[in-house]
Amino acid sequence: MAEKNENVNRRQLLKKSCFGGCLVGLGGLAGFLSGRSRAGDTLWQIDPYKCIACGNCETHCVLENSAVKCVQVYELCGYCDYCPGFHEPTALALDTGAENELCPTGAIKRKFVSEPYFQYDIDEALCIACGKCVKGCAAFGNGSLFLQVRHDRCLNCNECSIAAACPSGAFTRVPSDKPYLLKKVDNA
Amino acid sequence: MRRLFYILIATAVLSALCVSASAEMRFPPPEFEGDYVMPTTTTPHPHPDIYEYVDVAVLAAALSLASYLTLKLRSRRAIFVLMMLSLIYFGYWRKGCVCPIGAIQNIILSIFDSTYTVPITVSLFFLLPLVFTLFFGRVFCAAVCPLGAIQDMVLVRPVSVPYWLAAGLRLLAYLYLTLAVLFAATGSAFLICRYDPFVAFFRLSGNVNMLIIGLCFLLVGLFVGRPYCRFFCPYGVILRQLSRLSKWRVTITPDECIQCRLCEEACPFGAIRRPAVEWPAVEYAKARRRIAFLILLIPVLIALCGWGGSLLKNVTSRMHPTVRLAERIYLEEAGEVEGVTDPSTAFRATGRTIEDLYDEASVIREKFVTAGWVLGGFMGLVIGLKLGAVSVWRKRTDYEADRAGCIACGRCFKYCPREHVRLEKNKQEIS
Predict the structure, then answer these.
(1) Exposure letters B197-208 (e unless 16+ CB within 10 A, then b)
(2) Is A79 near chain B, with CB under 8 Å?
(3) For B273, which of A162, B4, B124, B128 is 20 to 30 Å away at the CA?
(4) Where are the domains of chain A?
């Protein structure tokens, strides 16, 4: 009987030391993580200088209507009459006729400013992030149209499905206090 | 003439599909006269960070409440209500992200990639359930995890899974954890997030394949209690081990076991262990020899599985986008495939040399060899210990909840006559 008691005690001692070891381990992990932690959250964003407008943003977001949208940086825009982001390359006339527009959903709005300049705005409710305008603008324009994750829509998944499918590594995690990577005039 | 010009442009667009986004200012912005105001680009704000801290507070509160409900109040109904509330908050309100299960990968990545910083809220999400499990058992699984809740909700007609089958299937969870650690540590992918079967239900949108797999889990879950938790959940594997050591834990009976056997069939998760007497001497000697053999087998298993893991480098490293890209470029260069893919065109547009890419890819592949040895060895150890564990005989006098397998759901409480005595006593004390 005495031997049995000793057995039980030995097992309990082992268990207690394991328990203590786990506590110490968790504490150590917590200490390590506090060194590797950041106060704010991180969010997903597209580096516009790496983006190749492949169209995965349209199809790979977990949301039915992608959280990525096209944005327009007006400081970079040439306000062109013929806008390679707005017009079909084979457009018969430079107007807002649907047959002349590149955007499949008509999400770019063309507004007359002064001869011969036009302002181009994105209607985000219509934009599907297909990147057709981005390609056109990058190839023949100033590249003022580009894709960005819109944080009012983004669920901020731990692994972004679009990032996993991004062919050019343009998706990066950014700190939540600087959530956008907009193109700048000087390094356009 | 203009038509021709546009056609030329069209062909140029098609051929220059992958011109890198940075283009020089071809058309200088006009200087507008008059009262034209240039609009500014809108930048809608993300959720304020404070929401994340609220999540952590809710998690801590839910864990504390779950501990109280399982250990002190012992009410299945209250546990169920808390479980539903957690499902609504963490699942449907917060869209199931970030969860402690997925947080494993953030933690692992932050250990192996010094440039990656993990948000403090994610660290807390990972650590809090572990600490609670170490003290109170798997209360996180019982009433806080939304993935467990959605499966627990659909369990209508539990069938019992034989012990050997359950123990074998559980190896899948270890394998899943191992692979998740492998791909997170090498910065390849977050496997657990990619193959989360239920998150699509919480968001009510997502990948169709995962939706179908989730549906299959729920269909199986009608009969087999919590199939994902028991046989796949990588976080559950960690919680199981900590739960073995927990300071306090759920007991079937509030005070003493009277061997009435009423609780025998109560657990849909096969976590109730029957009393067992000691083996006869002949059996005992045989079992001792078997255990000795199994212990000697462990190093062999570790070496074998580690070797196997390192051999898998060509398969596993393909999960890393750089390795995938390098393989594709190699095939394109060798002329074995026709055409180009988006990643390969994007790579060629960057102007990096192919040798540079090959070097980077082979460094990454070497990492997979090392990781294959370590993690394969871990799998071997797990298999060895599991073989040992199913052969070990432990004397048990009462009906007990299995320390690792019990998820503290509280279903067995009402089966115990002693529990009814306790409730009766409580009622009398109150009146």
Answers:
(1) bbbbbbbeebbe
(2) yes
(3) B128
(4) 1-37, 42-175
